[in-house]
Amino acid sequence: MKPLRLIKALPEFQDEVIRRAFQYEKDVQSGKQIAGKDIKKAVKRSIKLRKKYSYSEKEFRRVASLFYYMYIPVDDRPTQFLPAPWQCWILLNLFTIINPANGKRSYRSSGVCIPKVR
After folding, report:
1. DSSP string of 68-100?
2. I need a labelling partner for 62 at 20 to 30 A (CA). Which of 45, 55, 68, 103 fits?
3. Could you give phi then psi for residue 44, rounded to 5 degrees?
4. Would you call 49 exposed, middle or buried from its count of C-beta atoms within 10 A (0-12, 13-18, 19+)?
5. Residue 38, SS3?
6. What CA–CA distance (Å, rounded) separates 88 from 92?
């Protein structure tokens, strides 16, 4: 069975991942997206960090391109994986905040905890 590609061109896919990340951030700030106090603080902190350090869209596009080639099974058909907005926001923070003093990312590792729904 031929894989289902949701977004055909790589640049369009990268643009969508970037759009989702920043839209999630705006939605959390405005209250449109329900989020706990820790996430709200993290959003404020990430905005401050992007102002303090440098933001690398080139690096974000590189990371997003990895997901362009990733497929997951949906109804027994391989389907292109498009990260959820909160996942895009995590990628934004992990890979794009660069310390200009040494040219390295601010974060080297991360732990993400997701509760299991019963």
Report:
1. HT-EEEETTEEEE----HHHHHHHHHHHSEEET
2. 45
3. -60, -40
4. middle
5. helix
6. 6
Q: Is the pLDDT of residue 43 over 90?
A: yes
Nearest Cα to 58, choosing from 15, 96, 20?
96
Q: What is the pLDDT of residue 13?
A: 92
Phi-psi region of 31 (alpha: psi -120 to 50; beta: other; left: phi over 0): left
Q: Which residue has the tokens 């080139």?
A: 58
Q: pTM for this structure?
A: 0.85
Structure tokens at 14: 């990268």
For position 1, what pLDDT does the model report? 62
